[in-house]
Design brief:
25 helices; alpha+beta; single chain
Length: about 700
């Protein structure tokens, strides 16, 4: 027991450290280092929240810990885009932590030492602690748990855990205080249960305004448009937006970068040929672990399959070969004969068009004749094939197994001999001319040293310098002119709001801050983007306000047109409703007006999507109030209008409801409180004075 306790304490110490870091990042503490704000260079402020500084050193440390945590989980270093996302997440967490701490102090929320003691030593201890003492059978070892947390050797660890638990409980109390106004009544719980469990059989006739009412039946005047605009001006309020033009400089591997990887693998090959162990070198150099599995034809990317199966035998070294994902050096461990045969085929497809079936067959026979006379099959495929994906590769489909291709194609390919050209074979796609290159049952097992080709530091520096040079010239002269002279493509973003995602760029604090801090025509320095840099120019500025009438005129016209169409279609539906007898099926409506669609739904609930109908809350609400045998009145929806006949409605199971009601209440309450707290958090962030200087530290 002592040895187990000691080993567990070591593990517990490591786990507790990870947990404390997580709590700090997620829920907050004195992360801003106010007591140490006198530090010199390391104390530079990366931002402020309501006057409270966030130090660059603290921010960098948390980012680095988050990067290390992700690396531990995935086994790979995060790329630049992932690191940017991590920075954004850490920034948002730290901002929220400061705001939460302010509210905790404002509301005088406290957590006493006795609360924590009762929690840790009580019948339901913190889950993360409890998990460390659950054995393989799922049993919680309470005796070992108590002994470990009371062990004097773990006093320092427990002090750290205590602080993290205090922060967790403070956050829980804050969230509870803010969301205490959110409640759930009995009617909502019953409605949720009914939506999920009561089943309906009905017919629904849909009156589609776009089909039933032609555009020329609707008249809208200029006055109608302006009156609507004036009456609904609040709907056309808009936040300030910006548009940018930019030139992108991508960090792509250079020829030298590719050659360096090639030379590395060539050197590794020489070492293996001199007696070094392949697997040991793979552990050091390979970015992809090897596997003990055998691979059949068709289970590997085509370029890798060709490299492994073509002309190689057990024990061979293959490569270095350049494939789509970088350079590979393979060691063929073994070949074995499998049970499934595969064929390597090329094909030429001549599509069979509805009004041109005979000509399609004639063309296919002509291409087949050329192929059999010895004309290069690949060239014929590039010239004639109407399958663009394979035509560009000379018709090559790679290795295929049975069950992959359509039956006529499969039968012809597997019945032909290697080297044979067969066809035309008619399938649902058209006429195929097929060339069988080879047949094989072999399966391969291999080891792999894989190295991706990435931009080197020199390449990245060269790209950065190129971007900076363009920024200098664009500032001194004309952005468009300098881009034209250098033959750079100019890209323009869609309008975007402050702090929002930017089209083709995503969330980028530096770009967003530049856009909203500069005048029209201003040119940026080179700003870091995912896998590259960008130089930006402010191309449009729109301040907050109400969108001009001319800008929204077409939107209003379409909206008014739709509203008037719905009114007319409701009148059509009402007229038909007046003509239907209680015993009629709604199928009779299709006789009266063939343009009305009638859908049948059997044993469906109203909790989600209904086939051929979708999810229409107005329709669902109308159906839920009906009794079997009823034909509804006209039900208006955003899409149009409905008439419904309800045939059957299952009983509301009161026994099942009583059993499920507590769970449903908890689900609804949790959903609402989480949504309420999230909205509250966004609101206090909008009201806060947040200074964000990240663009000065991360380009």
């Amino acid at each position: 027991m002592t040895k187990i306790r000691e080993n567990l304490a070591t593990f517990f110490s490591i786990f507790a450290g990870i947990f404390v870091v997580y709590i700090v990042l997620d829920w907050g503490m004195d992360i801003t280092g106010r007591k140490q704000a006198s530090r010199s260079l390391e104390a530079q402020e990366i931002g402020k929240v309501n006057g409270e500084p966030i130090l660059s050193k603290d921010f960098s440390e948390y980012v680095q810990r988050a990067i290390e945590n992700q690396k531990a989980q995935t086994g790979t270093d995060p790329d630049e885009s992932q690191i940017r996302m991590i920075r954004e997440q850490v920034w948002n967490q730290l901002v929220e932590n400061i705001l939460y701490n302010e509210k905790i102090k404002e509301l005088n929320i406290k957590v006493t030492d006795q609360e924590l003691i009762d929690w840790v030593r009580g019948d339901n201890p913190p889950e993360f602690l409890k998990q460390q003492f659950i054995d393989s059978t799922g049993t919680f070892n309470r005796q070992l748990y108590d002994a470990t947390i009371m062990d004097p050797k773990n006093k320092a660890i427990m002090a750290r855990v205590e602080e993290a638990l205090r922060m967790q409980r403070l956050r829980e109390k804050l969230q509870s205080a803010i969301t205490s106004v959110v409640q759930v009544d009995e009617l909502e719980i019953k409605q949720r249960f009914a939506d999920q469990n009561v089943k309906y059989d009905f017919e629904a006739a849909f009156f589609d305004p776009n089909i039933l009412i032609p555009d020329d039946a609707i008249s809208i005047t200029e006055k109608d448009l302006r009156d609507y605009y004036n009456d609904h001006s609040d709907e056309y309020k808009t936040e300030a937006t910006r548009k940018l033009k930019y030139v992108r400089f991508d960090e792509k591997p250079s020829k030298a970068d590719s050659e360096e990887v090639l030379m590395t693998l060539q050197d590794i090959r020489k070492r293996i040929e001199s007696g070094s162990d392949f697997n040991e070198l793979a552990k050091t150099f390979s970015e992809t672990p090897s596997t003990d599995s055998y691979f059949k034809h068709g289970e590997l990317p085509q370029d890798k399959e060709n490299a492994l199966f073509t002309g190689s035998k057990k024990g061979d070294l293959v490569g270095p070969v350049l494939l789509a994902d970088g350079y590979h050096l393979f060691q063929i461990v073994d070949f074995k004969n499998g049970t499934e045969e595969a064929v390597h085929v090329k094909h030429i497809l001549i599509k069979k068009k509805v009004n041109d079936a005979e000509n399609a067959k004639i063309r296919a026979e002509q291409v087949l004749s050329e192929a059999k006379k010895g004309t290069d099959f690949s060239e014929l495929a590039k010239k004639y094939s109407e399958d663009p994906a394979s035509a560009i590769k000379g018709g090559d489909l790679g290795w295929v197994k049975k069950g992959v291709m359509v039956k006529p194609f499969e039968d012809a390919a597997f019945n032909a001999k290697p080297g044979q050209i067969v066809g035309p074979v008619l399938s649902s796609f058209g006429y195929h001319i097929i060339q069988v290159l080879a047949k094989d049952k072999r399966e391969v097992r291999f080891n792999d040293i894989h190295i991706q080709i990435r931009p080197s530091a020199k390449t990245r520096n060269d790209v950065a310098q190129k971007a900076q040079d363009f920024a200098y010239l664009a500032k001194e002269g004309s952005f468009e002119k300098e881009a034209e002279l250098s033959k750079y493509e100019i890209i323009e973003t869609q309008p975007f709001q402050k702090g929002a995602s930017i089209s083709n760029i995503g969330i980028n604090n530096a770009v967003n801050k530049f856009a909203f801090s500069n005048k029209l025509g201003a040119v940026s320095e080179a700003i870091s983007l995912t896998n590259g840099f960008g130089v930006f120019m402010v191309s449009e500025i729109k301040e907050a306000g109400i969108r001009p009438f001319e800008e929204v005129k077409n939107i209003i016209e379409n909206r008014l047109k739709r509203e008037k169409k719905i009114e007319k279609v409701k009148a059509i539906a009402q007229q038909i409703r007046n003509e239907i007898n209680p015993g009629d099926s709604l199928q009779i409506i299709k006789v009266k007006n063939p343009k009305v669609s009638v859908q049948v739904a059997n044993a469906v609930t109203l909790s989600g999507y209904i086939p051929n109908i979708g999810r229409d809350l107005n329709l669902f609400g109308g159906i839920s109030k009906m009794k079997p045998g009823d034909i509804s009145g006209v039900i208006e929806s955003q899409r149009g209008a409905y008439l419904v006949k309800l045939y059957n409605k299952s009983e509301f199971d009161t026994t099942a409801y009583k059993a499920e009601a507590p769970t449903l209440r908890s689900q609804i309450l949790t959903e609402r409180r989480n949504r309420f707290f999230s909205e509250w958090t966004e609101q206090i962030k909008k009201q806060a004075e947040i200074v964000d200087n990240r663009d000065l530290f991360y380009r």
